[in-house]
Amino acid sequence: MLVVAHLAAQEWPAPVRFEMEPVAGGAKANPEVVIRIDGVGALGVEVKAANLSAHVKHRLSNIWQLNARNAISPKSLGASVTLPRDNPVKDFLVSADKKFAGFRATDPDFRSVLVIVWDDFVNEPLSALASPASGLFTPNSFHRADGRVVEFPNVDAVLLVRHQHQVVEGLAGRPLVDDRAHLLDYGRPGGFPPHALVTNPAGHLVPTEFLSALHAVPVEELNAAAEYNPGEIVMWVDTADGTEG
Question: What is the rounded distance in angstroms from the CA atom of residue 143 to the CA atom of residue 129?
Answer without folding.
Answer: 11
